User: Fold this.
Amino acid sequence: MKYYNLILLLLIVVSCQNFKNQIKKEAIARVNETYLYKEDIKTLVPKNTSEADSVNIVNNYINTWATRQLFIDKAKLNLTEEELKEFDDLVESYKSTLYINAYKNAVINKAINMDITNQDLETYYDQNLKNFNLNEELVKLRYLHLPPDYGNIVATQRQLNRFNEEDVEELGGKKNEYLSYSLNDSVWIKLEQVFSKIPVLRKQEKTKFLKEGKYIQLRDSTGVYMVKIKDVLKHNEIAPLEYIKPTIRQIILNRRKLELIKKIEKDITRDAVENKQFEVYD
Assistant:
């Protein structure tokens, strides 16, 4: 009888405690045995939102939450125990992966050496030349897109072709007269990007204009295009280092990250064994 009274007393205490917990958390919606509490949406509505908008935001959230929960409950009723366990395992695995990756990323961000020298880039480039064949054409060029009624066509053509210091200065001083332009011919550009800037070129045979030192002058309804090809790299040629530096930089960083991850995994296991946190029983 004493044991019975003791158990009854414990049940009453637990029930009271659960009742107090429910009072502390104010429910605003319910789907079967699952509740949505006021504290769950306390950060939902941005500051300075009008009352009408606040009501709409909360109502939309509640309806979305309810629909989602109803689907979950229906799914649980229609899935077998084996399927439910499989999904629970997948959820637990995904959650564990998120935790692990967050920890690894935090350690890597603190420990990784982000400094990559030009020597690093050149060494990797030289050792992996066979991996840097181009799958598209690259060009260095300068061009002007001039209005249809532009004057001094001949003089401008001569300056763009010759392009000495005086020509560069004079052409640069007339930028507001051009519809578009690029006078920086030291950068490699994808041919497809050139076509987007100079669409009239797309109609031309590549073999005719993709030549080092080639000058092209074309006209369409928008005006006159003057194009000077400085250099060309064709499909399957080796990409120049300056063009693929960003790619090599990322490759080197990814390698360093992988090396750090291997070290982290090795260290965490070794430390756990040394500190008696990890044991394998026979």
